[in-house]
Specification:
The structure is a single chain. With about 190 residues, the chain is α+β, with helices and mostly antiparallel strands. It has 2 domains: about 5-110, Beta Polymerase, domain 2, CATH 3.30.460; about 120-185, no CATH class. It has 8 helices and 5 strands; from the N terminus they run ααβαβαβββαααα. It has helices at about 15-25, 30, 40-45, 65-75, 115-145, 150-160, 165-170, 175-185; strands at about 40, 55-60, 80-85, 90-100, 100-110. The protein has a 5-stranded mixed beta sheet. α5 (about 115-145) packs across α6 (about 150-160), α5 (about 115-145) packs across α7 (about 165-170) and α6 crosses α7. The chain is globular and about 50 Å long. The two termini are about 30 Å apart.
Length: about 190
């Protein structure tokens, strides 16, 4: 799957098709092309719920310039907010707003989007969903509908101890066979 090209959304679920239309109408991937945007999160992998947002990971070379660009491009959108802060030991720019009934979050850092945790989480979650199938997917969606965030939902089903965000990242080092063995033990 080429996650960098959102055309895969056109042939997906109804929410994925709506997301594709929203993102294209907003022209966000064209406007932010210099920042290597990648849609991450639950909508691309088909485990979104009504409150799910469109998470877009970007990179920047200068946080202040990136913030000003985001402000100028999207500052007029509904409920627009932007901030710079330290997260997990590095500086990030986070902007949120609403467009066509979707909450949108732009997350920028110095790291390429493919190195950011949201992208890495999405890849391992997608891999696990492919390995464990529809029943597992429905269990994740059910947990999310009952208030759990995505990574804690995966951790709960796998009975992982500790920080669910870190535990899920560590599963990326496992082979498919090891993931299946871990699932069978949980």
């Amino acid at each position: 799957m080429n996650w960098k090209d959102i055309t895969y959304l056109k042939s997906g679920s109804e929410i994925q098709k709506q997301a594709f239309k929203c993102l294209n109408t907003l022209q966000i991937f064209d406007l932010l092309a210099a920042h290597s945007p990648i849609l991450t999160g639950t909508i691309p992998i088909g485990i979104s719920i009504d409150s799910s947002d469109l998470d877009i990971a970007c990179n920047y070379m200068d946080a202040d310039k990136f913030e000003k660009k985001i402000q100028s491009l999207f500052g007029e959108q509904k409920e627009f907010k932007i901030q710079q802060k330290e997260k997990n030991g590095y500086w990030v720019v986070i902007a949120t707003f609403n467009f066509q009934n979707f909450p949108i979050e732009l997350f920028g850092s110095l790291f390429p989007p493919t190195s950011q945790n949201s992208y890495r989480h999405m890849l391992i979650e997608h891999r696990i969903l492919q390995l464990l199938g529809e029943d597992f997917k429905q269990q994740i969606i059910h947990l999310k509908q009952n208030g759990l965030k995505t990574e804690p939902a995966f951790a709960k089903l796998f009975q992982l101890d500790g920080d669910p965000f870190q535990q899920l990242l560590e599963m990326d080092d496992l082979t498919d066979t090891e993931i299946l063995q871990q699932w069978n033990r949980s």
